[in-house]
Amino acid sequence: SQTIHQWPATLVQPVGSPLSLECTVEGTSNPNLYWYRQAAGRGLQLLFYSVGIGQISSEVPQNLSASRPQDRQFILSSKKLLLSDSGFYLCAWSIGASYEKLFFGSGTQLSVL
Amino acid sequence: ILNVEQSPQSLHVQEGDSTNFTCSFPSSNFYALHWYRWETAKSPEALFVMTLNGDEKKKGRISATLNTKEGYSYLYIKGSQPEDSATYLCASLNYGGSQGNLIFGKGTKLSVKP
């Protein structure tokens, strides 16, 4: 069966520090991969999605970046965190077309102080 | 800017009550509507994906309807149980956006008291 792993679960980082969140999927091949963020009082917002290795699409201009070095690995990064980067980050995967349901990871609560 | 609205924002019901909530989404260039259940300390879990006007889907005591012409979907829970307590999210996928860009509402938080 397919599983998705996301870590760390919580993270407290100072402003200006770098960020690296990792997500891996097991039990499937060539998944679509997604990074979502939920800021306080807002709905889930798509940050990045990827349909294949090295293929990244960004939905929202920001100081974050994403990479997909392997088929089932998706990494969210920042060189310098801002206060506004605080939020709950969710990785997700799906198979096939974008109307297919998403399978979410357990999330990372990021607090930038 | 596409907007998905959910109401009510929160809901408190007694065990055994039936309840429903609403998701409003852009009707133009509609492609698909998703419903997810998000329990505290767990990952969001897909309930339904609906694409056709008039679709009705059911999973146990939970069902959903879809009206793509007027841009709304209802989620119904029959005989609510404490384990139904969660935030229910809907998300709309419309043509013209990026392939992967589901637009999520803020959710309806349901609390079921025993």
Describe the structure.
The complex is a heterodimer of chains A (113) and B (114). With 113 residues, chain A is mainly beta. Chain A has strands spanning 3-7, 10-13, 19-26, 32-38, 45-52, 55-58, 64-70, 73-78, 87-94, 103-104, 108-112. In chain A, the strands form two sheets. In chain A, strands 2, 4, 5, 6, 9, 10 and 11 form a seven-stranded mixed sheet that branches. Chain A has a four-stranded antiparallel sheet with strand order 1-3-8-7, with no helix packed on it. Chain A is globular and about 40 Å long. Chain B is mostly beta strands and 114 residues long. Chain B is 0% helix and 54% strand. Chain B contains no helices and eleven strands. Chain B has strands at residues 5-7, 10-14, 19-24, 30-38, 45-50, 56-59, 62-67, 72-77, 86-94, 103-104, 108-113. In chain B, strand 4 (30-38) and strand 5 (45-50) form a beta hairpin. The radius of gyration of chain B is 14 Å and the shape is globular. The chains are: A mainly beta (113), B mainly beta (114). At the A-B interface, strand 4, strand 5 and strand 10 of A face strand 4, strand 5, strand 9 and strand 10 of B.
Which of globular, elongated, flat, extended, rod-shaped describes the shape of chain A? globular
Q: Determine the structural class of chain A based on helices, strands and strand pairing.
A: mainly beta
Could you tell me which chain pair has the largest interface and how many residues each side has? A-B, 25 and 25 residues
Strand content of the residues of chain B, in percent?
Answer: over 45%
Principal-axis shape of chain B equals: globular
By secondary-structure content and strand pairing, the structural class of chain B works out as mainly beta
Helix content of chain A: under 10%
Distance between the termini of chain B: 41 Å
| Major sheet attributes of chain A | 7 strands, mixed
**Radius of gyration of chain B, in angstroms, nearest whole number:** 14 Å
* H and E string of chain A: EEEEEEEEEEE
- Number of DSSP helical runs of chain A: 0
Mean pLDDT metric of chain B: 93
Number of strands of chain B: 11
From the structure provided, what is the oligomeric state, counting identical versus distinct chains?
Answer: heterodimer
Give the low-confidence spans of chain B. none
Approximate strand percentage of chain A: over 45%
Query: Mean of the pLDDT scores of chain A?
Result: 92
Biggest β-sheet description of chain B? 6 strands, mixed
User: How many whole angstroms does the radius of gyration of chain A measure?
Assistant: 13 Å
